[in-house]
Amino acid sequence: MTIQLPSRITFEGPDTVRKWGDAVRLRREVEAMTFVQRETSVPVPTILEVYFDDQSNEDKCWILMERLSYLEQLHHLRLADAGVIGSVSGGAAFDHRLSNMHTRGPFASVADFHDFLVAPVKQSPRPGTFAKYRAQFPGTYEIRFAHAELSWENILVDASTGKITGILDWEMAGFWPEWWEYRKALFGSRSQPWWIQVLKPSHDGVRTRNRN
């Protein structure tokens, strides 16, 4: 288990952004962005430079990225070890819904991941509570690449054309059960009616299986 620090960004000029923070967390983001840029045409920022400060007690790293002026491509990405839930390098994944500042996994299967999600319910004194919650997570889902923090805050749009010019914040990206992208996109204040309508067409199949 790894404890992680928050990340921050500054604008270095009209075309560049500098992001710094916990090294483990930002390594995951660099891995995911490099992987997506290599395997798809999704407009992710180009990484110009990565610097890890090995002498820092806070274990920070800095990423300098080019600012840029397609969800289906992402979900078709696969790892050679297709059964693992974790980062694009096959290691532990980070997501604040799993643990606020820690990495978790990797998980060998969807079933193992679902067991992890409902494990706290085992402490319930009511008989049958764990089985009830565990039954809501069938093991029939595929493992797909997911941005895992897809929201309007992380999508750049050209106001004159309406076209997406960039997708930001890849530190939680990795390989997750196929339902994870949709649920994370609705997390917190993102669950707005107009945003749900945007998401529905690309997740209808997953949503149907989740209801069943």
UniProtKB/TrEMBL annotation:
<feature type="domain" description="Aminoglycoside phosphotransferase">
    <location>
        <begin position="23"/>
        <end position="178"/>
    </location>
</feature>
<dbReference type="InterPro" id="IPR011009">
    <property type="entry name" value="Kinase-like_dom_sf"/>
</dbReference>
<dbReference type="InterPro" id="IPR051678">
    <property type="entry name" value="AGP_Transferase"/>
</dbReference>
<dbReference type="InterPro" id="IPR002575">
    <property type="entry name" value="Aminoglycoside_PTrfase"/>
</dbReference>
<protein>
    <recommendedName>
        <fullName>Aminoglycoside phosphotransferase domain-containing protein</fullName>
    </recommendedName>
</protein>
<dbReference type="Pfam" id="PF01636">
    <property type="entry name" value="APH"/>
</dbReference>
